[in-house]
Write a structure and sequence with these properties.
alpha+beta; six-stranded mixed sheet
Length: 165
């Protein structure tokens, strides 16, 4: 599962090893079962493929926040396909989906403060960090966190400015 593998790689130190090495896949499967059951209900998941192989995905929740707009809830690219433009294509497709299906033109996401590579990527895509907040524990279970990790909110106030229209 791409989502669990990405968390295991990039969330170590923020999320507990016991959770990442154990229940993370079960947790993510439950989240995705719920999302897919509600498909078309104000959100979209966009997949990227290389040939027949899934290379990544982005999940967008339209009109999630009155101030910040659509939430890019997940953007993950399979490790072997990173640095090939797939992430940039996915975020551009997310922006287009916001324009096509949302009521606004802005989008945002949260990225772990420790994930400096993702921050550099989002900055290169025109996002800017505007806020720092403590991470909510996955599934609401505090033991799944290590310490008190923080996340940064990255925003695109007008996706047309960065991704065209």
């Amino acid at each position: 599962m791409i989502h669990a593998a990405s968390w295991r790689r990039f969330y170590r130190g923020a999320y507990s090893d016991a959770f990442l090495d154990g229940d993370v896949e079960t947790d993510r499967r439950a989240v995705w079962a719920q999302r897919l059951a509600a498909a078309g209900d104000g959100s979209v998941t966009i997949m990227a493929y290389v040939g027949a192989e899934t290379a990544g995905f982005v999940h967008v929740v339209f009109d999630h926040d009155e101030r910040w707009g659509a939430l890019v809830d997940n953007l993950h690219v399979v490790r072997d396909h990173q640095r090939r433009g797939i992430g940039a294509s996915l975020i551009a497709r997310a922006a287009q989906a916001v324009l096509d299906h949302g009521t606004g033109v802005s989008m945002y996401l949260w990225v772990l403060e420790q994930n400096v590579a993702a921050q550099a990527f989002y900055t290169a895509q025109g996002g800017r960090s505007v806020e720092r907040a403590m991470v909510d524990p996955p599934g609401g279970v505090p033991a799944r966190l290590t310490g008190a990790p923080a996340a940064l909110r990255y925003v695109w106030p007008d996706v047309c400015d960065h991704f065209g229209s």
